[in-house]
Amino acid sequence: MEAYSTWKSLMFRLLATVLYISLTHPAVTEAKDSKPAYTNFVKTKCKITTYPSLCQKTLIPYASSVKSNSTILCIKALNVAIKGARDASVIVSRQKEQKGITRYEAAAIKDCMEDVKDAVYELKLAVEAMGHLGGEDKEFQLSNAKTYASAVITDADSCTDGFSGRKVNPDVKDIINRSMAVIIKLSSNALSLINHLYV
């Protein structure tokens, strides 16, 4: 029974690692058809982000559709963050299946899932706001996009805070912390691009 529990714990960790790699090392089929100028555009823009290496890995695949459009780049970054948050939600929800989960841990996982759900919703609102920058209320929409992207980081922090300072299964805590780190990094990069949109 103990061997099974250890195996199951290892499988969860493996799943988290695989999903993390899929987030940070996306398929580059689109990038193959990109002009060097478009790829260089993305690389240059990524330099101002919090995590430039991750920015390049996740956004260069979209260089051919971004071309030299900073607004589209921001939207792509937000969409990448949405995928990251959705994948994190799957990882978090599966922690409930861990053997020996305490009542407190189950409650913390449930709260975390709500935080991630809020994060996905706010990222979608940010994408919607970015899509309305051509209107008369451009500044208002841009401010909304920044607010929503910032709120996502707060949501991810709220999830990890729910597991801090308490006795929690270290494997569960590690997997959730890494999942939230992905959301924070991807959202931080999107926010950086939005903040520098007209700079």
TrEMBL record:
A Pfam family the protein falls into: PMEI
Organism the protein comes from: Nicotiana tabacum (Common tobacco)
Protein name as annotated: 21 kDa protein-like
Domain of life per record: Eukaryota
Keywords: Signal
One Gene Ontology term, aspect cellular component: plant-type cell wall
Cross-referenced Gene3D superfamilies: Invertase/pectin methylesterase inhibitor family protein
Signal peptide range: 1-31
InterPro entries: Invertase/methylesterase_inhib, Pectinesterase_inhib_dom, PME_Inhibitor
Domain Pectinesterase inhibitor per the UniProt entry, residue ranges: 37-193
CDD domains in the cross-refs: PMEI-like_3
UniProt GO BP: plant-type cell wall modification
GO molecular function terms noted in the UniProt entry: enzyme inhibitor activity
